[in-house]
Each structure stands twice: as structure tokens, then as C-alpha cells.
């Protein structure tokens, strides 16, 4: 799409429902959606037969490359993986959020962020262990300045992060959420604090990320039944996000959740350089393939990275394919191919269907994906 005035046709592409269509793009917008073979314009090569969805949205990434271990380049975990929109999950607090925004301006991937309630963000991995690192006025000032970029607040509530601070960082986060009107994304993990104390503090539109983790302090009992605090949270409208990550996704817990009808709200990767290159995450397509292997349909799986995520963000246009909208599309294939998958617990399972990201259309440009699994 070197010339934005060209009419580009994605010919013979398939919706997730299986319907084959042509999509005509002009000046970076969807000009027409028509029957297969009927679209007029310059053909975009090598997409016939691919599936097309609205651009994938990853609700939990770490995209600030200066931080180690939890950092990566924006486009490496964005458009190169078939993901047109990422939401950085609290890499930066008020001290560095301006730097993340500066990075995002140079990227081809659309970026939003949860602001870490700790001003130091993930420059340390115990960022909530000292309450003086939570500056409420700094948080509010950052939100006022960057209101179009910040979509919520992030609090990592697990033992290694909060140390002796216990539940107090979450209580402060709740107060900040109430004061600013922004929801919380709460990371859950090893206790203390106990999960039974954490979840009741969450309200409608707040997010539990890592809800399928296999740690002892998780949301399911020994027989795989969801805890009552989880059922109550779902009834209140609390949102569930996968946040696979290095240590936060268990096939066994995911099977229990499916068996009991829990989820599926949004699938996210919690990706950063280490688990992208060395696993167990690798890519969004790899994580989506895991949910197909668990028995979710293609439509359920793709909805969890398109319309569900877009609705939570309050940007439904990001989750649809409609004439007149900006062209924001992911093209991918579904192959009958044997693949070995691994979760965060080291459990391996073999699947026979593989999702592979092929390319994205965003910002008036077609970008071929570099990640193939």
C-alpha cells in the first residue's frame, strides 16, 4: 500500500464464520465488503484463502524495552505478531510513562497502557514493597496529562511484589480507581495476600489477570471448582484476562475453568522478550492455538482478542470489520498441523490445529508477520 489513494483488494479471504469475501481498502479505510471475486482494485498478494478478523488486541504485554526482565520492543510483540493494538500492563509508573508514550509514537502498533500505581513501575520487580513509592498525586497528574493513553491502573498483588505491604497497595489502588474513575487490572499470584482477601476488593470492569494460573493461591479448589469469590466477582462484572506469561497459565486450571463455564473474556499473552524468545509464550498465535486445543471454537478464541477486548476498551470499532471504518485487520491461517504446546507449568500437549499470523492491515499499510508460530 505504498500509495494511499490506491484501492487495494483482499480477495477471497474468510471471516471466522467461514464466509468468503473481498475487502476493498481505499485511503486506509474499508471502502467496501463484497462477495468473493467482486471487489475491484489492486490485489494484495498471498492472502487468498486466509482468515480475516479485526486486528488482534493483546490486553497484557510489557512493551518498555529499557526494563529487564519485563520489557520488549513494541512492534516485536505487536504488528510482527499479527497484533495491531497492545495494552502495556503496568510496565511504567508515573516516573516513566511519558517515555513509553514517546516510544509508541514511533511504532506501527497502536498502544494503550495501564499505569502502575508504583511510580517506579517495573524498574524493580518488588515495586509495591515500599508504600512511599505509591504517590497518589503523581498518579492523578499522569492520568490527567495522558488521559487518551492510560486506560486503567495496574497493581501486582502477589508476595514477591508487595513484600510486607500486604493488601495495603490494593486498598490504595482501589481508592485511586474510585477517585479517577479508571478500572484496576490486578495481577494475582502466590500469596500472601490470600486470594480470598484480594478478589472481594474488585468491582465491575476491574480485571483479574492471570486467572488461569496454577499456583496454590489460585481461583479454583483442589477438585477444580471455581472458588465462591470468583463466582461472586463474575456476577459483579469483574473481567477475566488470561495473561499467560512465564508462570501464569496452567492447562489443568484452564480445563477446569472451561468445564465449569468460567470465562472466556480476553486472551492475552503477558509477553516480553524472555518468554517471546524462549517460551512458553512465543507469540499471540501460539497462545490462541492453546485455546483451540482446549476445545474452544475458532470464533470463541478470536472473539477473545477482538470484540471482547475492544468492548472493554470502549472502542467497539476496533473489534469489527465494517465499511467506513479504518482498516484494522489481522490475516491468519488455520492449518491441520501437529504442534506441541507447553504451559507455564511445563505441561506439554499435542494439538492438531495451528493458528499462524500472516499479516496485518493498519495505518494504511499491509505488514507481513515475521512470527510464524
From TrEMBL:
The modification N6-carboxylysine is found at residue 154. Zn(2+) 2 binds at residues 154, 187, 210. It is an enzyme of class 3 (hydrolase). Zn(2+) 1 binds at residues 60, 62, 154, 270. Gene3D superfamilies: Metal-dependent hydrolases, Urease, subunit C, domain 1. Residues 53-336 form the Amidohydrolase-related domain. This is Amidohydrolase/deacetylase family metallohydrolase.
Amino acid at each position: 500500500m505504498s500509495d494511499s489513494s490506491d484501492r487495494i483488494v483482499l480477495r477471497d479471504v474468510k471471516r471466522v464464520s467461514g464466509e468468503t469475501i473481498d475487502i476493498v481498502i481505499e485511503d486506509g479505510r474499508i471502502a467496501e465488503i463484497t462477495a468473493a471475486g467482486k471487489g475491484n482494485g489492486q490485489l494484495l498478494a498471498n492472502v487468498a484463502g486466509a482468515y480475516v478478523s479485526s486486528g488482534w488486541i493483546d490486553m497484557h504485554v510489557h512493551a518498555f524495552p529499557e526494563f529487564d526482565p519485563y520489557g520488549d520492543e513494541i512492534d516485536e510483540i505487536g504488528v510482527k505478531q499479527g497484533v495491531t493494538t497492545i495494552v502495556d500492563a503496568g510496565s511504567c509508573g508515573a516516573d516513566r510513562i511519558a517515555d513509553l508514550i514517546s516510544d509508541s509514537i514511533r511504532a506501527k502498533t497502536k498502544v494503550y497502557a495501564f499505569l502502575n500505581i508504583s511510580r517506579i513501575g517495573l524498574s524493580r520487580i518488588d515495586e509495591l514493597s515500599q508504600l512511599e513509592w505509591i504517590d497518589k498525586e503523581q498518579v492523578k497528574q499522569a492520568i490527567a496529562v495522558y488521559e487518551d493513553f492510560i486506560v486503567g491502573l495496574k497493581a501486582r498483588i502477589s508476595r514477591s511484589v508487595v513484600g510486607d505491604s500486604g493488601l495495603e497497595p490494593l486498598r490504595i489502588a482501589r481508592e485511586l480507581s474510585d477517585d479517577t474513575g479508571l478500572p484496576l487490572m490486578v495481577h494475582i499470584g502466590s500469596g500472601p495476600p490470600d486470594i480470598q482477601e484480594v478478589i472481594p476488593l474488585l468491582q465491575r470492569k476491574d480485571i483479574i489477570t492471570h486467572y488461569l494460573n496454577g499456583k496454590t493461591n489460585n481461583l479454583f479448589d483442589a477438585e477444580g471448582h471455581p472458588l465462591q469469590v470468583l463466582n461472586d466477582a463474575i456476577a459483579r462484572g469483574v473481567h477475566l484476562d488470561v495473561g499467560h506469561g512465564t508462570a501464569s497459565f496452567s492447562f489443568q486450571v484452564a480445563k477446569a475453568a472451561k468445564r465449569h463455564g468460567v470465562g472466556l473474556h480476553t486472551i492475552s499473552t503477558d509477553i516480553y522478550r524472555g518468554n517471546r524468545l524462549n517460551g512458553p509464550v512465543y507469540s499471540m498465535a501460539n497462545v490462541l492455538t492453546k485455546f483451540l486445543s482446549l476445545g474452544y471454537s475458532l470464533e470463541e478464541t478470536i472473539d477473545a482478542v477482538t470484540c471482547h477486548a475492544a468492548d472493554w476498551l470502549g472502542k467497539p470499532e476496533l473489534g469489527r470489520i465494517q465499511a467506513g471504518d479504518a482498516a484494522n485487520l489481522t490475516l491468519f491461517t488455520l492449518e491441520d498441523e501437529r504442534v506441541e504446546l507447553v504451559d507455564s507449568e511445563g505441561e506439554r500437549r499435542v494439538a492438531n490445529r495451528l493458528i499462524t499470523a500472516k499479516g496485518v492491515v493498519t495505518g494504511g499499510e499491509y505488514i507481513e508477520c515475521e512470527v510464524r508460530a
